Amino acid sequence: MADVSDRKIVLVVRPTRLDELIVRFNTVQQAQFYVEHLGADFSDYLQEHRRYQEAVTRAEQTLRAFGRVQRLDRRFLPNFVFGPEDRVVVLGQDGLVANTLKYLDGQRVVGINPDPERWDGVLLPFKVEDLPRIMPEELRGERPVKIVTMAKAVLNTGQTLYAVNDLFVGQRSHVSARYKIAIAGRAEQQSSSGIIVSTGLGSTGWLKSIYAGWAAATRTLLGQPADTISDGSFPWDADYLHYFVREPYPSRSSQAGIVIGRIAHAEQMILVSQMPENGVIFSDGIESDYVEFNSGTQAAIGVGEKQGLLAV
Which residues of 34-57 are buried (b: 16+ CB within 10 A; e: fewer)? Predict the structure, then answer.
C-alpha cells in the first residue's frame, strides 16, 4: 500500500453564512447589527458557523492519518486541477457535493454531513465520526459507489459546461428567452422563461418543483387524481436526461409544441440563441457558473461522457 505521505486527500469546504456576511460588512459586529436590526436571530448564524468550523477541524485532523490533506475552498473549484489519484472528501451541504462532482473525472467523492441536525444531506451519507471507519475502505477501493449521470452542453464557441443536477438555458434577467430548439427530428422557434435540462440526480430538485406546479394545475383544472401524475423523478444513473420548457409563449413567430421530454443517450438537443444580450447557460443552480448564450451561439446538450462517483 502507498505510504501515507504519498497520498493526497482534497478536503472541499465552503464559507458559512457568517463568512459571507463578514465579507459584506467587514466585521462580525457590523454583520450582527445588520441582522438583528432586521429582527432576525443572529445566534443561529454563530451556531452554524461554530459547528461547521469544528467539523472542518475534526475532519482535517482525522484525514491526516491517511494522507496529505489539502483544504480547498469552493470558490477555487473551477480552476483547481485534481490529480487522477486524488481522494476527495466534501464537507457538505448537498450543493457542494454536486458542484464538486462536475469538476472531477473518475475520482470518487466521500460526502460528509457537518451538521446532521441542520442538513438532510441526500448526498452526504456520512458524518465526521465515520471517517476513521470508512477511509481505509475507501483508500482500498472497497466502498460501494453510486453512479451519477451528468449533463453536458457544448457550444460552437468552443466552451463546454457540465451539470450534475441540471442546466438552465435562458435569460439572465426575468424577460423572455428567444431561441430555436431542435430535438428528435422536430424543430421550432420558441419564446419562454427558459429551459431546464435535468439529470436523474437533479430530478428531485428543480425539475421536481416544476412537475409539482404542473401537477397542481392539472388537478385543479381537470380534477385528475394526484396519484396519476408523475413527480418527474428518475434514477441517478439513468442514461438519459429530461427537459422542460418553462412558460412557452405561442405567437405568430413562436411555437409551444416542444415543451417536455427525454434526451436519449445517443441524441442531443440543439439550441440556437436569438438573444442579442444576457443569454446564459448555467449549471446546478449556480448563476455565477455560466457561459454566455447570445445571438448565433449554438449549444448541443446531451448526456455527458463523464460520470460522478459518490461513495456510499
Answer: ebeeeeeebeebeebbeebeebbe
Burial zone of 207 (CB within 10 Å; 0-12 exposed, 13-18 middle, 19+ buried): buried
Give the range of the structural domain holding residue 133, as residue numbers without chain letter: 4-143
Run of H or E including 20: helix 17-25
Which pLDDT band holds residue 182 (cuts at 50, 70, 90)? very high
Q: 216: domain CATH number?
A: 2.60.200.30
Tens-digit pLDDT profile for residues 116-165: 999 888 899 999 999 999 999 999 989 999 999 999 999 999 999 999 99
**pLDDT value, residue 308:** 94
First to last CA, the chain: 23
Q: What is the CATH number of the domain that holds 68?
A: 3.40.50
The arithmetic mean of pLDDT across residues 264-290, rounded, is 92
Q: What is the pLDDT of residue 2?
A: 52
Domain boundary among 93, 111, 143: 143
| Residue 123 neighbours by CB distance under 10 Å | 26
